[in-house]
Amino acid sequence: MKKVILSVFVVGALLATSCKNTKEEAKDAATDAVEAVENATEEATDAATKAVEETKEATEEAVESVKSAIEGIEIPQFEDPKVGEYLQTYSQYAKDYIEAKGDVVKNTELAKKGVELAAKAKEIAANLDEEATKKFNSVMAAIQSKMAPAQ
How far does CA 114 lie from the centroid of its chain? Predict the structure, then answer.
């Protein structure tokens, strides 16, 4: 009987001691978890900030890339991005035309592209308001004036 009582006390003492250690380990684990969450939050914030900065830089580069393929001509911003894309395409066509020294007959691809772009210009101009039409025509005139010496 003494052995049973002694065994119960030993087991009880072990359980009581291990419960205290478990509580301390739980506190340590909770502290570690909080630190891990704080670190993850900080890393996520840093990553988000970096992504925003990269997006801002990419946007600035895109705005700068609205310069035409022809030196000295800049394409203004339009509400419809298709207008800017068209003017960019037309300026590249004009550059190719100038490099061909105006001999469109020898370059059939250039002639076909010129006809397509002329038709598309009419479509785009028809969908613009008065102010946008003025800007569009101004840029087109500037590009065509650069093309004139090549003829």
Answer: 32
Number of residues that this document lists for the chain: 151
**SS3 category, 74:** strand
Is residue 18 scored above 60 in pLDDT? no
pLDDT tens track for 51-105: 778 766 655 554 444 555 566 678 888 888 888 888 888 888 888 887 877 666 6
pLDDT of residue 20: 54
Query: How many Cα atoms within 13 Å fall on the side-chain side of residue 71?
Result: 1
Six token digits for residue 7: 């065994």
Q: How far apart are CA 114 and CA 143, in angstroms?
A: 13
Amino acid 144: pLDDT: 81
d(CA 12, CA 6): 10
∠ CA 66-115-110 to the nearest 5 degrees?
Answer: 75
Q: Residue 141: enclosing H or E segment and its boundaries?
A: helix 130-147
Q: Which of 64, 62, 63, 75 is nearest to 142 (CA)?
A: 75
Q: Which residues pair with 74 in a beta bridge?
A: 67
C-alpha 41/C-alpha 60 separation (Å) is: 28
